[in-house]
Amino acid sequence: MTTDPRFDTFCSHQGLDVFHAVTHQHQIWQPDLYDVDTIHLEARSAYERLLNRVDSSAASDSGRILLLLGESGAGKTHLMRFFRNQTHEQQKGFFSYMQMTSAVSNYARYVLRNTIDSFDKPYYEPFGPKTGLIECSNALAERSGVVTPNELTLLKEDDLSQEELIDLIYPIADRVIALKQFNGVDIDVIRALLYLQPGQPAISAKVLKLLRCEPLTPYDSKVLGGVVSRDHDDDPLRMLRSFALLIQALTGGAFVVCLDQLEDIHSMDDAGQRFRRAVQTIVTLAEIPNVIVVLSCLESFYDLLKQHLPKSHLDRLEQDPTPISLSARRSEDEVRQIIARRLQNLYELAEISVNSDETLYPFPDSIAEKLAGQTTRDVLEWCRRQREKSITTGQLPDLDAPSSDSDNGSEPPEDYELSQHWNDHLAGSFEPPDDDRDLLHLIGHSIQRCGQELGHGCHFATQIDGDYLTVNLHLGPNATQGSLLLRLCQKPARGGSLAKQIRELQQNAGTHIPVALRTTEFPSNPQTKIAQQIGNFLSQGGRRAQVADSDWRTMLAIQSFEQRYGDRPDYPAWLQAEKPLSQLPSLQRILDLANLKLAAGSASSGQPQQTQPTPQPNATKPGENLPEATPQPIPDLGAEPTLPEPASAIPLGQTRSAVPTPVDLPREALVRHAAFLGGSGSGKTTLALTLIEQLLLRGVPAVLLDRKGDLCSYANPEAWDKPTDDPRLMAHRQLLRDHIDVAVYTPGTLDNAGRPLSIAITPPGLGQLSSAERQQLANYCAAALGGIMGYKSSGLDKIRIAVLGQAIAVLSTLQTDNPLSMDRLITFIDEQDPLLVNAIGVLDPKHCKKLAEDLQTLSLIAGHLFNPQCEQLSTEQLLASSHPQKTRLSIINLGSLGDNANILFWVSQFLLNLNRYAQRHPSGQLQAVVLFDEADLYLPAQGKPSTKELMESLLKRARSAGLGILLATQSPGDLDYKCRDQISSWFVGKVKEETALKKLKPMLSEAKTDVTSKLANQQVGEFFAIRAGEVTSLRANLSLIQAEQVPLELVQALAASVVNQ
Fold it and tell me: With bands split at pLDDT 50, 70 and 90, how would you rate the model's confidence at 95?
């Protein structure tokens, strides 16, 4: 028997679901640690492009329905899970998920109720327990621009009377609805979301009834200030429209409606009519500019169902974008990634290093070839069976074990009929009780049912005594895991009432684990004493769970469902497969089900339970680009040089025609950005510099990010004095020289060499932003720090990045006026401060130790990047000239930063600074331009460096600030083109590589003239200029300064000489 610690872990009961083959509905809300982002790349790209289209300037007729087709096991539901978590992680909107049902006649009502259930889940689990509804409520209260600081403080007080709330909320709602961006939103929806701010359980329950379009009692209506029910047949569609418009007004994000398993409708009576009604609903919704609809269906059933649709609806489903057929069969490389990703996570949990040469161990490397051509489901099921066999026998997996479908290669399907009945049943109305004792009884019965769902002989006994519920956990006939003491802690925080409830719970717990329950959000403001107390409560072993309204309704629904179907012989098997209660977020937290399942598996086999330590991060290092050859385009300098008119068009060159004509670019076109693409030696950088020189002469400042040192030629006197036989060139060059103020910065230099440019860990003023903006920027900062520490964007590293983001957000709230220091951040995390424990929700504080150690290592190695004694990065300073009548040209040389990890980290902070500048300086005219040379490093087609999301955000936000972004790359095949809708001007030079041409095809296909076949034959300085579909063949002008590489030592000397002048 092998003694390899990896095999010992493989044979343990740790991570028993690591090879689970089916994505269930309840997993949609949880990030997937095992996602392989290269599978179904076409569908991922199409969805991301739809997300990027959603902004105020998107055309109203843009297609917004994405139809995914494929056979069973192709991974449609897995993709929905990825879409949901991508949308929420990037804070690009709100995602509603549902499966097709047969028991409804009003599909809009069904969509609405599932939408409220979806919004009532944690918005993004690694960000904490805050639900989507609370995120939306916070955005309304903090970002609408009409709520004063005093009103916001009052709104969050949880002990105001009904009359006080009415007097506060109604005037605010009147001011909000008067704003243009809220046109079309139901004012009662605005009032309802504001009513969620105080977190009063009784009021919040009534708000959710209103938002679900359920009937309100006269008392309900009175509590909400006289709001009337929205329970007519056409009210749900209007409510959905109000939500969509509100999301657009508050966040500029998307409202995504995802309808999965459309094929379920095929077996119903009047399937064609039902399908038409369902499609009519989604087509109507998709007419709202920020709504995206995602549909999934088995391809064979869709071909039958679509015959019932009118052509107008069929066109909406199948055009812009066209349907995407998902391949169910995996390639050898995909099989390798699927298995390796799961094994890596399993070994990281056991703190075992992963051998890069044996990523599939204990499976032999040849298994990827053997399983190639199978579905993902079959691959995972084969691995699961092999692992179970190894657990039983202690032997290595058997490569010769059958892997075909004939050997039960996919997990036995769950009972379709009961699952459909359950989905139908959930579409009904289930109103939770108002009394806390009744709620405690309900959760006690639900916990008992959880034991039945888990199997393995689990039995959970409950007993109520006054305000407390005792739960004894039995994991088998002779195994007891412990006991819990639950209490509903519903009182307001103000006045100490909630603190008293939690303190009494802790005192009465004795040997039980105390669990505090609440139907609304627990207080989280780190500036309050109650947040500190809750953090201490959790640090001392307590648990807390917010039981969402949708969870209570599911607990009620299962009771009546069991009365109706519980006598069926297949009901117990369905219960253990579907797990309708144990998948609820609240019950998972109350029972700590992730660890309880591990303990249950160990108890049933007699093996000891193993711990889950943390892994070591793996660093990756992107490759370097090759230098570009010097182009030889034809200049067009004209006569005696004079300063051009500031608003005049930019001359770029001449057409490549028998009679050449000038080619100009309107100055304001650069507000919509430009990209310069071409292989090495194509002249793309020279064309970009030609444009920038002309902008400088028109008074538009520029910032150049220089990786190779060639852009620093503008600071080198030798470049300006370079001899030429053309006196006109010298005159134009001198004109430019006389009117620009050149500054060179050298971030990363030591001992004050050059002109260091230091960065802060967080942008200034982070703590003064709204909660959503603060969290988003904190996450960006955490991702950048994670990148420089070698963290991956998956697995346990992603969890540590989430913890780091919460730490930054909390600390920025505590010290709004002082910059965050690295030492303070490390101490806060290392000590597992109660405020941090409170903020990270269900994430395990054990990740803090490794995170603090890695931050300390970073501080020792790269602390000079954060040196507060050096000049601090400021976009305002980069654009401001120190000489009157001159325009600033700032060149940031990245050569002293070292490897790509350091460069990506520094550029991430630079992008954050640019985003904040754009937010603070709105403008309808071009204010400045920024050139990102070798932009494929920051916006790659593959991978997700910390710069990528920030660059995508900047491309969208910079337009409203008059900030032109110029992207140049000599590796056009490596650039991500999903943001192409944000870039209006494209200049494509010589491109020969087939991969690059293939990547360019979607962008080039939107041009009215196909130039793909002509790109490889272009000469240096020849381009196709593409704007609004129009194509111009261009021979570019020569730039006045020839960009030639400047040695790093000279760059630093030039930077220092400018400072000393």
Answer: very high
Question: Collapsing DSSP states into helix, strand and coil, what is residue 267?
Answer: helix
The set of residues, in sequence order, having a beta carbon less than 8 Å from that of 496 and lying 6+ positions away, is none
142 closest CA partner among 172, 165, 178: 172
Q: Is residue 107 part of a domain?
A: no
From CA 146, how far away is CA 178, in angstroms rounded?
A: 10
The rounded distance, in Å, linking the Cα atoms of 1034 and 1026 is 10
Q: How many helices (H) and strands (E) does the chain have?
A: 38, 21
DSSP three-state, residue 804: helix
CA 277 to chain centre: 33
The answer on 461 and 598 residing in a single domain is yes
Give me the amino acid identity at 1033: S
Distance CA 348, CA 438 (A): 43
Q: State the Cα–Cα distance between residues 864 and 757, nearest whole angstrom.
A: 10
Task: Tell which residue, 119, 130, 155, 81, has the closest CA to residue 806.
Answer: 130
How far apart are alpha carbons 495 and 498 in whole angstroms?
8
d(CA 354, CA 343): 9
Q: Are residues 1014 and 892 in the same domain?
A: yes
pTM beyond cutoff 0.90: no
- Half-sphere exposure for 985 (CA within 13 Å, toward CB): 23
Query: Do 578 and 450 touch, CB atoms closer than 8 A?
Result: no
Structure tokens at 399: 């490569």
822-830 and 795-814 are packed helices; what angle lies between their axes, rounded to 10 degrees? 110
d(CA 408, CA 788): 45
In a domain? residue 761: no
Instruction: Please check whether residue 968 is in contact with residue 678, taking contact to mean a CB–CB distance below 8 angstroms.
Output: no
Query: Measured between alpha carbons, how far is 383 from 32 in angstroms, rounded to an integer?
Result: 18
pLDDT digits (tens, 9 = 90+) for 611-664: 333 333 343 333 344 344 444 444 455 557 889 999 999 999 999 988 889 999
Pairing outcome for strands 1030-1036 and 740-745: unpaired
Does residue 725 share a domain with residue 662?
yes
Nearest in space to 295 (alpha carbons), one of 25, 63, 67: 67
Which residue has tokens 């109660």? 834
| Helix axes 376-393 and 332-349, enclosed angle (nearest 10) | 40
Shared domain for 1022 and 932, answered yes or no, is: yes
Specify whether 394 is located in the same domain as 438. Answer: no
Confidence of residue 705 (pLDDT cuts 50, 70, 90): very high
921 and 1051: one domain?
yes
Lowest mean pLDDT among 198-202, 352-356, 1051-1055: 352-356
246 domain-assigned: no
| Alpha helices, H only, 940-993 | 946-957
- Residue 895 sits in the same domain as residue 994: yes
CA neighbours within 13 Å on the CB side: how many for 488?
A: 22
Query: How many other β-carbons are positioned within 10 Å of the β-carbon of residue 233?
Result: 11
Do the beta carbons of residue 615 and residue 347 sit within 8 Å? yes
CATH number at residue 502: 3.40.1350
Q: What is the CA radius of gyration of the chain?
A: 30
CA distance 605 to 12: 10
Domain that holds residue 671: 650-744+888-899+906-1060
| 1055, containing H or E segment | helix 1048-1060
CB contact set of 459 (below 8 Å; sequence gap of 6+)? 451, 474
Sheet containing strand 543-546, edge to edge, reads: 459-465, 468-476, 479-488, 513-518, 543-546
Counted domains in the chain: 4
184 forms bridges with which residues in the sheet?
none
Q: Using alpha carbons, list the distances in angstroms from residue 475 to 471, 543, 610, 670, 960.
A: 13, 20, 16, 65, 59
- 465 and 593 fall within a common domain: yes
What CATH number does the domain containing 669 carry?
A: 3.40.50.300
The answer to the question of residue 266 being in a domain is no
CA separation for the pair 176, 181 (Å, rounded): 9
